[in-house]
Prior knowledge:
elongated, ATP hydrolysis activity, Alpha-Beta Plaits, nucleotide-binding, AAA+_ATPase
Amino acid sequence: MINYSISSAMVVGIFVAFDKKCYTSPTNLPALVALLLLYGWSVTPMMYPMSYIFNVPSTAYVSLSCINLFIGINSSAITFILELFENNRALLQFNDILKKVLLIFPHFCLGRGLIDMAMNQAVTDVYARFGEEYSIDPFKWDFVGRNLVFMAAEGFVYFILTLLIQYRFFLDHWLSESPSTLDKHEDNDVAQERERIYNGGSKEDILQIRDLSKTYPGRRRPAVDRICVGVPAGECFGLLGVNGAGKTTTFKMLTGDTDVSSGQASVAGYSILTNILDVHQNMGYCPQFDAIDDLLTGREHLFLYARLRGVPESEIARVAEWGIQKLGLSEYAGRCAGTYSGGNKRKLSTAIAMIGCPALVLLDEPTTGMDPHSRRFLWNAIMSVIQDGRAVVLTSHSMEECEALCTRLVIMVNGTFKCLGTIQHLKYKFGDGYVVTMKIKAAKPGLAPDLNPAEAFMESSFPGCMQREKHYNTLQYEIASSSLARIFQLVVANKEKLNIEDYSVSQTTLDQVFVNFAKQQSGEDDDLVLHPRAAGARREMKISPVSDLRNKP
Length: 553
């Protein structure tokens, strides 16, 4: 209101400078000031909730300016034009009703009040030419008074409405969704972690997540569906999943970037629902897309975020230099961030997340675009954070990275946790056993290797095994369940008989476990809530024969 008052004073000054008596006469000037001030008082809280609709400030500015002009000009002009039809009683009655309805808009109250003041001055000037005095108190109810009263009341009403929206009154009381039922076939490890959270066993954990959910409008399935986990100090927790599984949405809820549909979470004992400012003080965040300013240098970024973190001014230079050395940015620290490569931008974003030694560090795919040397350098930096007794939550598409850093990890599919545990535990529980690769040599020089005896041996010795590859002299089999000692024993005993030149036995990789779960991820289009006619059109498209599609140009 202080800022707006300055603008209003400038407007009044312009009217005074041009000596507009309809607004600057001794009787009209107080009414003009009251109109302008009450307009700002009422329209500001009316426009504020509109900010939730937009993501881009420039788009919001243009759109809301057009809306304000459209309402203000059109509403005032329509009522003014209808008053010109003096002989049409029906239109005049309609105009009286319309003027009462439009009083809910501060734009109309201001515009109509200015028009009425100008018309009143014109009538006063006409009477003055005939030597008669004509004056009406502008604060009269039928004149500008009702406009002022309505704007004063609207300021309170819209302000209360804004507060209710700000504190999610309508979402929590009117639009709250019934909690979804838990999956009966939930994995045992996931169920045990959920039970641990429910029983209060995670009180010492830095990050505690309890039934956290997020459902976007227009979607049937939640983006995140009642996840529960606790991350203690000194642990790197991996969050794996294909694109669209809900990893970034989980991070956005933890950082307060998006609203939580249901559930709760806490960081260092502070709830993300009620103490988000305290959460921010104990959290570092490296987003999926670099949030850096192209015109600032790397060192200036670290200085800026150190100040935001509350680092004492005398320590900022040392803390910034620590971040530069920690992430290997010495060569680029004095250059503008806009000139950095993709890998160096990720390093800078990670350094920003570590500034101030937060208790929890969230890293959303931090090594994207990095070369192997830089990736190893960053891994060492993350390991040092874990050794300091802080917690790290990491998302990545690199299984090698997860095996190098994560003490526990979870695979997320369709917004839910499908498995949870150490890497070796997941390999043993969800892996497809072992992979046996054999290289067969020819019985005599010049002849092609005979693979049939080796194939028959594998099928008889390991029933149910699957042949994954077969080349000129190489066989690869997947054995679902068997003793590792028995596999070696049988292969070694028949090595000479089967002409096996060399062989290897390996356990199922984390990649294979991840791919097996990734197959369950549904597409985004399957979650849309469609109009019945549109849904029918989709079904009709799905059953169209492929031959028909090929024949169409």
